[in-house]
Write a structure and sequence with these properties.
about 230 residues; 9-stranded mixed sheet; mainly beta; Jelly Rolls; about 0% helix; single chain; 2 domains; 7-stranded antiparallel sheet
Amino acid sequence: MIDIHKAASRYTADHGWLKSNFSFSFADYYDPDNMGFGPLRVFNDDTVAPQTGFGSHPHREMEIVSIVLQGQLGHRDSTGRQEVVRPGEVQRMSAGTGVVHSEMNPSATEEVKFLQIWFEPAQYGLTPSYEQKAYDQAKLVNQLLPVVSANGGEETAKIHQDLTLYLSRLAAGQSIHFEQKPGRRIYLFVMEGEVLLNEDTSLQTRDAARITKTTSLDIRANQDAYFMLIDLP
């Protein structure tokens, strides 16, 4: 089953310095029928104005992934890490037993656009940790590149959950096939362009699909597309 969620159906919050679109219940947006998808709990599409951001605040028992689409994201946390995340890099923070962090836009002129994605961990009580990995963006072209997984890797951040997060840039007319084990879920989100799923379901920019009971997925680009696919338990 492919359940489509159009971009316009997301909850939108505009705080001036921050513009967000929430795919699941978050902050002031609460819908008891939209609390997550498997261990995927939060999927926020954020735009932060120059020299503003999320000041220091705490988290516990959550795996938090950030993917920058444009600009820079400055990170600080109570483990002592201080980093800047840019396009072509992925950030994974395990909040575990408790961490305090901030995510700020250090630029004086450019907005930062990023995806903030939270997953419930497979195990609670973990020691807080941070990881940032750069990946070769050329490897996204016409294939699925894992940038977050339970196993990690040279260009793949390690997450404490049985999932893999792939990115891909698919040229118009090109196709990718994804085969999944039975009983799992797929979350697919289009950052740019348009894709066709299994020859009959179209997703455009910022649309998402929540996929269950479908182990075989063909993805074709109707126009140049940049998308994310998350293989979930």
